[in-house]
Design brief:
Structural class of chain A: alpha+beta
Number of domains of chain B: 1
CATH superfamily of chain B: MetI-like
Radius of gyration of chain A: 25 Å
Largest sheet of chain B: none
CATH architecture of the largest domain in chain A: 3-Layer(aba) Sandwich
Number of domains of chain A: 3
Largest sheet of chain A: 6 strands, mixed
Largest interface: A-B, 27 and 18 residues
CATH superfamily of the largest domain in chain A: P-loop containing nucleotide triphosphate hydrolases
Shape of chain B: globular
Number of strands of chain A: 21
Helix content of chain B: over 70%
Strand content of chain B: under 5%
CATH class of chain B: Mainly Alpha
Distance between the termini of chain A: 34 Å
Distance between the termini of chain B: 48 Å
Shape of chain A: globular
Order of helices and strands of chain B: HHHHHHHHHH
CATH class of the largest domain in chain A: Alpha Beta
Radius of gyration of chain B: 20 Å
Strand content of chain A: 25-35%
CATH topology of the largest domain in chain A: Rossmann fold
Structural class of chain B: mainly alpha
Oligomer: heterodimer
Chain lengths: 359, 223
Amino acid sequence: MLQVKLQQTLPTTLDVELHCEKGEVLALVGPSGAGKSTVLRCIAGLQSPQQGLVSCKGQTWFDSEAKLNKTPQQRRVGMVFQNYALFPHLTVMENIKLALDIDKEQHHQHGKRLLEQVNLSGLEQRYPHQLSGGQQQRVAIARALARQPEVLLLDEPFSAVDKVTRRKLYMELNTLRRQLDMPVILVTHDLDEAAMLADSLCVIHQGTTLQQGVPETVLFKPNNVAISRQVDSRNIFTAQLVEYENKLKLKWYDYFIDVADTSQFKLNDHVHWTLSPSKVLLHQRVRKSRGEHENPLEVTICDMVSLRGITTLILTVEHTDGIRLQMDLPEHVAMRNGLKIGETISVTLLADAIHLMSE
Amino acid sequence: MDWQAFQVSISLALLTCLSLLPIGLAMAYFLAKSNFIGRGFIEAIITLPLVLPPTVLGYFLLVGMDSNSFLGSLFVSLTGQSLAFSFVGLWFASIIYSLPFAVQPMLRSLEGIAPEIREAAWCSGLSKWKTFFKIELPLAWPGIITAMVLSFSHTLGEFGVVLMIGGNIAGETRTLSIAIYDSVVAFDHQQAQSMSLILLAIALVTITLVYTLNRKQTRVAVL
């Protein structure tokens, strides 16, 4: 298990606490300049924080109190750099052999096995400039694994490749990670990428880790509004908890909204609430359903955008001074219901999916 | 053709460029890695021989090598000979005035290596020495060759400093450029022409080599 605690005030602020289990992929997400790469560099020993502790597999790599700071060579870290940092004067095989920490006689065999693992067999004698971006990334991963590292660090590994290659590499990394039994930290600013590849997410902003947890929790149940904004929650509103029909409900303009879980809050609390756009359900115009009794709202479509089979509707909620709510639904549903800009429709806000946050 | 002068010139140029390989590399490596306040000043000192009139540089070197100076007296006590007007003195002076020609190309090529490449080597388990010999040195090689070629050809062609430090002692400090000057003064144009043609050919070959290597280095840097 990898445990990281980093603190510093200069030259940039760092207040980081994260952990990653063996075989787990932890995505470190945050905007550019949030300190994601700095955290990786501190784990690798390329940079030292003013205070903190980095330990892996029961071994301490950095401990400011004990004045212990192991060099990158002593840490057994596999690192894939953003631009891969392959050695340009060496062939693919030589790049990998250089990092191998085994008997020289086994170098070639082991190097070949690593290249097979990343689907690069046959390209052993090529130089980095003769490879595509995707191939370069695979060499970088093979080189990082060559040292039999105790932790694998991936610094925005997909940022230098095109979208088509990226999709292919996601699949490959997903397959590869099942064969790895070490903690893997993936730095990215792409939330979809993080949610797709990682077992857990850690949100970092301005050098401070805000929340770590499974993607579902971090993305849809963030601890506070700041995290909610970092994970790009599109529906964030404020309301007050009131008692209505013997239940604690959200008083939001003229509406009393049912919420499944209010356990962390009490009557009259002012709260923020968020709801994933995919948890706003359309009331079918033709066939009525039971669900229409759950937080029904009359809304007007003021914009709609379709992308890869998902239609996003921007809705203006009646009686709310023009508050806008976002809703995602499959494109075919939008077409079948003949949704058009300017139309008024009826929707449900799923009580189970509404998440409350303190102000 | 003054073959003795040719031999002195070639020996001097070879010794100077071989001496500048470790000296220039150490200086360039230190400068490439450090970012201290006085770095600009240190670089200026190294580059100074490039802009100073050779006679000015020669004068200061001559004063520095005088038997009353620290360096001059140390040399006399060790060898019993004067440093000025000797081949060793000329060699020492050549190292100083060819220093910028060695350090600058080495520095540029070492600075051109992306820091991540170095860090990737460390993360791959390579020690700093191994990183230097297996990664940095091969990547900086075109710059190092350029430095060697430039310092060799610059030493071969230098006139002013050689005259100030070495004088004109046949077989000891009389280089090809001094011999050409002597031939012209003595109206022996045929000899001056043949020796000039040799220097011209060497200069042309070395500069062609430098440009070819620079193009190769640019290509590596772009990758």
